[in-house]
Amino acid sequence: MLVSQILKAKGDLVFTVTPNDSVSSVSALLHARRVGALVVVDNGKVVGIVSERDVVRIVAEQGAAALDRPISGCMTSDVLFAAPGETVDALLERMTDRRVRHLPVCQDDKLLGIVSIGDLVKHKISEVVAEADGLKAYIAAG
Question: What is the dihedral of CA 85, 87, 92, 94, to 10 degrees?
Answer without folding.
Answer: -50
